[in-house]
Design brief:
Blueprint (H helix, E strand, L loop, with lengths): L4 H6 L8 E5 L6 E6 L4 E9 L2 E9 L5 H16 L4 H13 L2 H12 L5 H14 L13 H15 L1 H15 L1
Antiparallel strand pairs: 1-2, 2-3, 3-4
């Protein structure tokens, strides 16, 4: 059965079932999932290697069928090329959570035992106070230009020697 606005509107959960998927005949893996509580959603299911993956494409309504079909067709094309759309999405979410601040905290915890208290305090100040412009940036997206902007800002506020020490601390962090 082709999933259209009419079929989505008319689809009902079969008797005795709490969860059922109506599959589309034209796009492999594209389906309409109905649940006992009344929720309806579009899904896309595929196999990548030995793993079966299922992605939610959004709430199902007759108005959103066209957009869901386009998304499912794009996803199917990516799968045929050997890509893993669900894996890519999970990886992007993981990378978004990996900010400069997240790793600075871990780095400082590891350094605490290796340095004397005053030296550690200075490094901590360099990375948490002076390099604050980098805190919300994803670690993989920090560029030399971003680090240079931090060094220029520190030079303007605290002077050249402090900027040099901040540069050294940031360089050691990335090393």
């Amino acid at each position: 059965m082709k999933l259209t606005a009419t079929t989505v509107r008319a689809a009902e959960l079969p008797a005795g079932k709490s969860d059922f998927i109506f599959w589309d005949d034209e796009i492999p893996g594209f389906g309409l999932r109905l649940r006992e509580g009344g929720s309806r959603s579009f899904i896309f299911q595929y196999k990548h290697g030995a793993k079966h993956r299922r992605m939610n494409l959004g709430i199902a309504s007759p108005d959103t069928v066209g957009e869901a079909r386009k998304n499912a067709a794009k996803l199917h094309a990516r799968v045929r090329l050997g890509e893993d759309p669900a894996g890519d999405k999970a990886e992007a979410q993981r990378q978004a959570a990996e900010t400069f601040k997240f790793y600075v905290d871990q780095y400082l915890d590891a350094l605490r035992q290796r340095y004397r208290p005053r030296s550690f305090t200075e490094i901590q100040r360099h990375l948490t106070k002076h390099a604050k412009l980098l805190h919300q940036v994803q670690l993989t997206k920090v560029t030399r230009r971003d680090v240079a902007a931090v060094i220029v800002a520190v030079t303007n506020v605290a002077g050249g020697p402090t900027a040099n020490r901040v540069r050294s601390s940031v360089s050691a962090f990335f090393t």
